[in-house]
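Q: What would this chain look like folded?
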Amino acid sequence: MFACARHSWDRAGPPGGCADLNPCLPPPAVPPLPSLNPGPALEEGQGLTLAASCTAEGSPAPSVTWDTEVKGTASSRSFKHSRSAAVTSEFHLVPSRSMNGKPLTCVVSHPGLLQDQRITHVLHVAFLAEASVRGLEDQKLWQVGKEGATLKCLSEGHPPPSYNWTRLDGPLPSGVRAEGDTLGFPPLTTEHSGIYVCHVSNELSSRDSQVTVDVLDPQDAPGKQVDLVSASVVVVGVIAALLFCLLVVVVLLMSRYHRRKAQQMTQKYEEELTLTRENSIRRLHSHHADPRSQPEESVGLRAEGHPDSLKDNSSCSVMSEEPEGR
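A: My prediction, written as structure tokens:
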């Protein structure tokens, strides 16, 4: 598109040699009309995904940027036409629940605009948080007769989740009311004891959380509510004491056995020693009583009466007298 202007010049004409209708003036700026197109549905757990694209066409080519606190990457491409140029910018991100509800703004700058044009897109990220059940922080408060007892299921998501309560070991007891994320109980009885399950779901996913309710009877509670750790310590202590006592008994029995064995051996040894002495004395007495065992002196006395012995005695006396005479 070109503009025409009429000027008065002298015969030499205007500088540059243009005619009265001057086609040499540059065309005026054409302001762009930007548009923003959201990307596909965002879900937590996806990889790098297109969040939105922004396109603006004008003359000269406009500038397209993004204004957001969301972490992502932008990429641009341009297309030139005969009298204008189009610029398209895309914004990619990795969806997470923290991005849900955050603004993503396309900013278009151009010489034909008095101020930048801004188009805002609100991000919608589908997610479902883990579920948990509150209300049993102090189990001792759940006693027979308690009123106003409730369980509350905690979760969040987009789209907003729905809640469903069930009982794992049977149907919900009479009088128990399920209202959204809250499960209300009438005055408690032991029949309300059981395992309760909260089921949370939305269009994206589903989550479950369960809790065990144990309604205590005050009449049976004293002396029966023993701490598990304390009970374990007591059991271990009793077992250790029994093992120690058993060890002591075994040591005493073994000591007594060895002592008795030593006494028996000592007594047997003494008996054998006494028997040996008695046998020695008995043999000695029997030896004296037998004539065949008389001593040599008696044999010598009997030998003196023998004739040969007399001869020897006389010879000895003669030999002893000769030296005296000499």
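Residues 1-21, 296-326 have pLDDT under 50 and may be disordered.
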